[in-house]
């Protein structure tokens, strides 16, 4: 599916990767671009329509789906992250609940709400923003990793479920991206613009997954190894 002439709805699009998705969609000639966000006050971007949405609130999601009923490409980008001491930290359960509410249940809720919107289109697609953390042991990101692993599993089930309806589902896996979400974390980061370009190109090529940086591609390649990357990460990842 080509972004050109598509009507795109992106969650978490007020800044960072979501805003990069919106801007690139405009650049590629999308018919309309909706930027979903919790607070639309003061948002002004040429060619982009802000829509209020909170992915933790079903009523808010339903209202957004009604406004954007012409959507042909849904991008589930909204997400949160936080650091903890490790998987057995005292706040691990509380943090996990918070991560799952947005990173997993948010994807489920929005996908459910837009199902009818996408089903009546001759061609439609969903992009779910995932993470290399599903294959990379980083104890300080345990709740975030668990929520993204759940989102990956949901993406695979969703792809299979919607295939017969001609709704394509693309999973985007990427490591750290240079956005406000990763500000202050001293690690190599990918450019949001580069990640978005790769993702839209993969969608146009009909791919099911895109590994948007070298480290993520290396991790994915280890999954069939006797000692996969989620047990012993490769050097440099």
From TrEMBL:
Q: Does the keyword rRNA processing apply?
A: no
Q: Name one GO molecular function term.
A: oxidoreductase activity
Keywords linked to the UniProt accession: Oxidoreductase
Q: Which SUPFAM superfamilies match?
A: NAD(P)-binding Rossmann-fold domains (SSF51735)
PROSITE patterns in the cross-refs: ADH_SHORT
Coiled-coil stretches, from where to where?
Answer: none
Membership in a protein family: Belongs to the short-chain dehydrogenases/reductases (SDR) family.
Q: By its UniProt entry, which NCBIfam families does this protein fall under?
A: PRK08264.1-5
Q: Which PANTHER family match?
A: NADPH-DEPENDENT 1-ACYLDIHYDROXYACETONE PHOSPHATE REDUCTASE
Q: What is this protein called?
A: Short-subunit dehydrogenase
Tell me which species this is from.
Answer: Cupriavidus plantarum
């Amino acid at each position: 599916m080509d972004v050109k002439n598509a009507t795109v709805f992106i969650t978490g699009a007020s800044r960072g990767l979501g805003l990069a998705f919106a801007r690139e969609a405009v650049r590629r000639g999308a018919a309309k671009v909706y930027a979903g966000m919790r607070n639309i006050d003061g948002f002004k971007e040429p060619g982009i329509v802000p829509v209020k949405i909170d992915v933790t609130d079903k009523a808010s999601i339903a209202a957004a789906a009604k406004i954007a009923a012409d959507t042909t490409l849904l991008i589930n980008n909204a997400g949160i992250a936080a650091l903890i001491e490790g998987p057995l930290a005292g706040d691990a359960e509380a943090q996990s609940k918070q991560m799952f509410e947005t990173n997993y249940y948010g994807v489920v809720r929005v996908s459910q709400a837009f199902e009818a919107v996408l089903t009546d289109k001759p061609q439609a697609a969903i992009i779910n923003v995932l993470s290399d953390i599903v294959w990379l042991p980083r104890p300080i990101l345990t709740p975030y990793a668990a929520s993204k692993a759940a989102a990956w599993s949901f993406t695979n089930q969703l792809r299979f479920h919607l295939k017969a309806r001609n709704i394509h589902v693309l999973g985007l896996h990427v490591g750290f991206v240079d956005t406000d979400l990763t500000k202050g974390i001293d690690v190599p980061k990918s450019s949001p613009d580069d990640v978005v370009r790769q993702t839209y190109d993969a969608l146009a090529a009909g791919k099911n997954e895109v590994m948007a940086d070298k480290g993520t591609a290396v991790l994915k390649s280890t999954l069939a190894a006797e000692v996969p990357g989620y047990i012993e990460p490769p050097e440099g990842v």
